[in-house]
Sequence to fold (510 residues):
Amino acid sequence: MNAVIIGSGLSGLTAGAYLAKAGCRVTVLEQNGDIGGVTMGIRREGFSWDMGQLILEGFGPGEQAGYILEELGIFDRICTSRADRTYSFPEFVIRKEEEFRGLWWRRDYLARIFPAEKKGLDAYYRLYVRFMELVTLARRAERSAGLVSLVSKVRMYLKLLPLLPRIGWNARRMIARYFADERLQGAFISILADFVVRPSQFPGLGIPAVNPEPAFDARVPLEVSRLGRQPSYRFIDGGCRPLVDALAGLIREHGGEIRTGAAATGITLDNGAVSGVACGDGTTVAADIVVASGGAKEVFFDLVGRDNLPAKFAAAIDDIPLMESIFMIQLGVEFDPRPFQRDAVVYYYRTYDIEGAVERIQSGRYHEGNDGFLICIPSYYSPSMAPQGCHAVTIYTIAPNSLEEGTWGERRDEFAGKLLDLAEGVIPGLRAHERTRVVITPDDFKRITHLRHHAFGGCAPVMGKKGAPHRTPVRGLWFVGAQSESGAGINNVLEGTWRAVRMLRRAHRI
Ligand SMILES: Cc1cc2nc3c(=O)[nH]c(=O)nc-3n(C[C@H](O)[C@H](O)[C@H](O)COP(=O)(O)OP(=O)(O)OC[C@H]3O[C@@H](n4cnc5c(N)ncnc54)[C@H](O)[C@@H]3O)c2cc1C
Fold:
């Protein structure tokens, strides 16, 4: 079987690794000069940065992403350590305490700040445990077969039953059921700004999923009850690049080829089935199977052609809700910022009005960092990411693809200056100690990802909407990656690809 993979991001590489291991002749086509998509990383003057990835969910043994790396046999090729984040709001900070106070420290900590909300906090954490039990059962059902799978499904539905009346609630309504104070509501829904989804459009029952307790304290045990397990959060030593290299290495070890500087410009069809992929250099690679990643509209409308697709499918692709982009500054600094920011990952939220903030971004109004920004210092976790005595610093905000006024090219330096002013309000002296700087605008991200609309996490998790399906109406064409997963973190992209490959192998008897 000739399998052509379009895109060498983590989804394309994961699909390529599975198929190469299964004996397919794999060719990966990547339009960039380097592999890895948004996880290719950046290296300059002895510094290295990820392109915005912070701490990753589910990379422990047996977890969502860890399981896949174990199955592929490359789990030991990356080294991870548990990691966490801090939230800073205008009036309070959620930061792990020096002394570890157990699994539910955040509940007790928030109850001390908001004593009138204690009952709501207790009720929320009961929902949290039930949610984690549901997820554990769902995963067990999916990974097992026969009786184990059936029993897990039955238990899952029994657990879900009391939540059914609230299944259609949005996050705004759900959070108001638990908390009255908008500041406490903000502690649980502010993260939706990072998904570029309005609380009124996000499923209420998804709130625990975006607030996993281990993300706030790496010491938290993962078992929440006899049945339920929450995901761990980790940092990969050296950033995401070692993961990219491990997957690419596996493809090559199994005879696969990865071509860089090779844009796919068309998918050729024969009787409704794929037959090859045309490349920018005028060549065509023969294909029995094509696994495409990247943009859904770009793949289905530009490479396949709308006329070759059923109208209903094309309409579903038109309807995919996409996130917006990122404005980012990578700095290499010659000092230790620890006296000002002790923690590696800090979200500086500057508004509680998440609904309004997301609405403004979606209409092209950039907040210039005033609604919030984050600072990540990966060299705290991984000293090899900066020369001795120096640190790699990543500062970014969510940002619209296109500006209401002017272009990203015209306003790049102005916005970098404004964001650095805000960052220096937290870590003074960033510019004075700057050795090197890389600024990445939404236009740069469009180029890196080959997308007309850059969506930094792919498909936005909007109630009632979905990403592109893995199985497509074109025989032999499969779709994977961030635009097929709702709220695509790396864990979801990997798991979605695992699912797609499983379907593909059954369909093609590989
Ligand atoms: C700033 C930022 C911060 C993030 N933070 C986190 C985080 O903290 N935690 C987390 O879990 N996830 C995070 N993510 C999300 C995660 O990194 C992505 O969802 C995931 O890596 C996407 O993988 P992918 O393979 O779907 O896409 P990409 O990495 O975009 O790869 C797609 C590849 O396909 C190539 N391509 C597209 N079209 C063609 C074509 N026609 N021909 C050839 N090649 C083509 C592109 O060049 C690209 O290399 C973040 C993403 C960004 C951008």
In short: The chain has three domains: 2-36+239-320+459-508, 95-229, 325-449. The radius of gyration is 23 Å.
